[in-house]
Design a protein that fits this description.
Blueprint (H helix, E strand, L loop, with lengths): L1 H5 L23 H26 L15 E2 L2 E2 L11 H9 L2 H21 L18 H6 L2 H5 L15 H5 L5 H38 L10
Antiparallel strand pairs: 1-2
Helix pairs in contact: 4-8
């Protein structure tokens, strides 16, 4: 028997589609027919069970949940309860993720948003810091000119960063494409920051709801 198993056997293969029938597509093999037949009979069994259920249905059957149920174009629309106040994405997260994972992701997004916020310059917002200049007497206070003191135009006095001097502005050449590129990058950075903050807030909300609904695990039989 050992010698018989060592002898190479002929592998019988099913023939392919003949050349004159190639226009009809691939030739169905037996394994393809088995899959198709099983799928057909499975659907047939489901349809037969649904027909029998519909025939045996009690027309006087009533549940109190039917008062709140609604149909839209013949399709059940779900109950009008508090569960519908969440979006599909939030419901999916609540079903598949746990509280610790959501809290971890919210913390990671919060830290990344904080690093992004520190790396970005909030141009156009009021300056939070101040610059104090000391003078000797009241006369210098009245004659003090900030533009002359800082050697910069009056329009740039509110800036706490990137405030060039008058001599630098005179020798500066405006590069319009470079300016547009910087504005585009700034817009993209602020958009990414906003999306990360929104995602962090959504994750925190879902984690809070999921934690409040999680039952307390105790030993023994629940009453």
């Amino acid at each position: 028997s050992s010698l018989a198993n060592a002898i190479k056997r002929i592998t019988h293969k099913e023939r392919s589609q003949p050349a004159h029938r190639l226009k009809l597509g691939l030739l169905e093999k037996h394994k393809d027919y088995v899959k198709r037949a099983r799928n057909f009979h499975k659907k047939e069994k489901v349809i037969r069970a649904l027909k029998r259920k519909a025939e045996e249905r009690n027309e006087d059957e009533f549940y109190h949940a039917m008062e709140k149920a609604r149909t839209k174009d013949g399709v059940h629309d779900g109950r009008l309860t508090q569960a519908n106040k969440y979006t599909q994405e939030e419901l999916r997260l609540m079903r598949t993720q746990d509280v610790k994972y959501l809290s971890l992701k919210a913390t990671i997004d919060d830290k990344k948003a904080e690093r992004m916020r520190e790396s970005l310059h909030f141009i156009g917002t009021p300056a939070q810091n101040s610059h104090t200049v000391f003078v000797d007497d009241e006369k210098e206070v009245q004659q003090f000119d900030a533009a002359t003191y800082f050697d910069t135009p009056e329009q740039l006095l509110d800036r706490s960063f990137n405030r060039p001097r008058t001599s630098q502005i005179a020798s500066m050449t405006i590069n319009a494409p470079r300016t547009r590129e910087l504005n585009r990058l700034k817009y993209a950075s602020y958009k990414a920051l906003k999306e990360r903050l929104d995602r962090k807030e959504k994750l925190s909300k879902v984690a809070t709801v999921l934690a409040s609904k999680q039952p307390t695990k105790k030993k023994g039989r629940s009453k």
